[in-house]
């Protein structure tokens, strides 16, 4: 038999053992908690370092230089603006800054964009691009026949591009303009009913004195997104566009200029005259845009905008 004294001793030993186990468990538990806390603090510190690194990267991002110049002699009294962006120097040279950031209708300069989208997505296949003339007599005799892509771009044939844009469709066009960050990206007046100069559906659309608007500076930025070193568009598409945009009379010089004119009227008066594109020269690629607006008592045209752009580019690259 176990005596009362032995029983008491056993109980004391068991109590001591249980107390030791509890103490050991508490130490393990505390140690795990400390490890977890230390790991959490390390992760927070790491996250903070990453945030600081990201913030530093944003801070050192290069902002292009903007230089304002007096090119009034090029414009000879015309109300207009010129923007040149030198990609190598990351520098804008701007005449009439207020007008350079003012949005207006792109008119036929938008044929660069509709061609880009159609070529990139197989809607225009250059070797099989002829579209059938409806037989309607248009004011431009060059449009009164079946026309292929190259001639449609060269003659700025509106009915051809009205068909191309309808083939692209509203949803896809909207996505592509958002991707390009093209001005206000507003194609809400798809049919071009806001146009006060023409009501013929074959000759109207959101890009002709209607809902879509873009500034000259934005035109330049879009040109770089298409043709610059970080372009998302295929080399094949860019080369096809370059073929139709090349200004042939300047091809023999040391500067190759690629561009598109555009002109829009409101109530019979020219309110937008454009020439935009890019140039390859010995100093590298530059992107440009010239826009002329309504000028009382003076003739305004896209051919004048083109002349001014060529002078500005030539002098800049000299």
Give a quick summary of the entry.
By secondary structure, the chain is an alpha+beta fold. 44% of the residues lie in helices and 16% in strands.
Give the DSSP E fraction (strand runs of 2 or more residues). 15-25%
Decide which structural class fits the backbone: alpha+beta
Count of helical stretches: 10
Widest beta sheet: strand line-up: 1-3-2-6-5-4
SSE series:
HEHEEHHHHHHHEEEH
> How many E strands?
6
Low-confidence stretches: 1-7, 19-58
Q: Taking Cα atoms only, what radius of gyration do you get, to the nearest Å?
A: 33 Å
Give the integer mean of the pLDDT values.
86
Q: Roughly what percent helix?
A: 40-55%
Using the alpha-carbon principal axes, give the shape: globular
For the biggest sheet, the summary is: 6 strands, mixed
- Span between termini: 118 Å
Notes on the protein architecture:
With 318 residues, the chain is an alpha+beta fold. It is 44% helix and 16% strand. The protein contains ten helices and six strands; from the N terminus they run H-E-H-E-E-H-H-H-H-H-H-H-E-E-E-H. It has a six-stranded mixed β-sheet with strand order 1-3-2-6-5-4, with helices on both faces. Strand 2 and strand 3 (91-95) form a beta hairpin. The chain is globular and about 50 Å long. Residues 1-7 and 19-58 have low confidence and may be disordered.
Fill in the keyword field for this structure.
single chain, 318 residues, alpha+beta, disordered N terminus
Secondary structure elements and pairings:
Elements: H1 4-59, E1 65-68, H2 72-75, E2 80-86, E3 91-95, H3 97-100, H4 111-120, H5 149-154, H6 158-168, H7 170-180, H8 216-227, H9 235-245, E4 256-266, E5 269-281, E6 284-293, H10 302-317
Parallel strand pairs: 1-3
Antiparallel strand pairs: 2-3, 2-6, 4-5, 5-6
């Amino acid at each position: 038999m176990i005596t009362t004294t032995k029983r008491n001793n056993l109980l004391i030993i068991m109590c001591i053992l249980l107390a030791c186990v509890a103490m050991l468990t508490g130490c393990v538990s505390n140690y795990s908690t400390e490890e977890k806390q230390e790991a959490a603090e390390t992760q927070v510190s790491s996250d903070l370092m990453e945030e600081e690194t990201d913030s530093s990267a944003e801070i050192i991002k290069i902002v292009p230089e903007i230089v304002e110049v007096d090119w009034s002699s090029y414009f000879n009294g015309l109300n207009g603006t010129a923007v040149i962006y030198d990609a190598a120097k990351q520098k804008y040279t701007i005449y009439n800054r207020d007008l350079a950031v003012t949005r207006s209708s792109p008119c036929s300069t938008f044929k660069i964009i509709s061609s880009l989208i159609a070529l990139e997505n197989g809607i225009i296949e250059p070797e099989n691009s002829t579209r059938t003339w409806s037989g309607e007599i248009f004011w431009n005799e060059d449009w009164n026949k079946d026309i292929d892509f190259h001639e449609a771009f060269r003659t700025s044939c509106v009915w051809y591009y009205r068909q191309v844009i309808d083939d692209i469709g509203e949803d896809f066009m909207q996505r592509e303009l958002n991707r390009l960050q093209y001005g206000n990206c507003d194609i809400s007046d798809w049919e071009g009913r806001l146009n006060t100069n023409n009501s013929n559906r074959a000759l109207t659309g959101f890009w002709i004195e209607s809902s879509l608007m873009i500034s000259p500076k934005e035109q330049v930025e879009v040109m770089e997104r298409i043709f610059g070193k970080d372009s998302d568009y295929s080399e094949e598409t860019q080369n096809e566009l370059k073929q139709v945009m090349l200004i042939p009379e300047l091809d023999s010089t040391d500067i190759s200029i690629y561009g598109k004119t555009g002109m829009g009227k409101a109530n019979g008066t020219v309110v937008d005259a454009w020439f935009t594109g890019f140039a390859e020269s010995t100093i590298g690629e530059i992107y440009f845009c010239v826009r002329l607006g309504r000028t009382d008592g003076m003739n305004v045209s896209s051919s004048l905008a083109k002349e001014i752009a060529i002078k500005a580019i030539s002098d800049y690259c000299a």
